[in-house]
Amino acid sequence: MCWWWCAFVLEGSEMKKQGESRCTQKTISLLSPLGTIQVSGCENGVHTIQILMDVAPAERSSEAPLSCAVTDSPAETSPEMQRCVEWLQAYFTEPQTAGSLPLPAFHHPTLQGDAFTSRVLQVLLRDVKFGETVSYKRLAEMAGNPRAVRAVGGAMRRNPVPLLIPCHRVISSSGQSGPYMSGRGDHLKQWLLTHERQRGEG
Length: 202
Known about the structure:
Structural class: alpha+beta
Number of strands: 6
Distance between the termini: 66 Å
Shape: globular
Order of helices and strands: HEEEEHHHEHHEH
């Protein structure tokens, strides 16, 4: 019985690869206050957002407004990719307008279906707004599984589109900010929370 099961698994794997090969991804690079951000996606939507952490986060100054400019882009990009770029630019330069802009479609397997990770990320996107924070415990309750606090942490680590889905707004119950990008981006999380708090007050 093993041979046909293995053949079934291999066939399914090949079908998945063929499906992925039909999705042609392109990448746009932006120079943001956090350094270089790379947005990858296809005609169907955004696949990933990567914060490269190639420079220290920009210091805030009333005399020098924050900027977010495209530094590298394919000749042609999909409307969904362009929508993502416009949202990111608004988030950094005119954050009070970002909430009124349409978000791009997402096209990453993590965000498809009704798995717990997908559900948590969708709830976070829908219910935790600019300038707000939520604890891991509370987010688990909001996603329908109050005991899944650690699973919520795992979902944050697997978030393929940070900033758009604001995993930086999820903090510990003690009020500490908690890790970001597996601990490598804790300083970015502090920057983002301060950015939203200050702009919200403004």
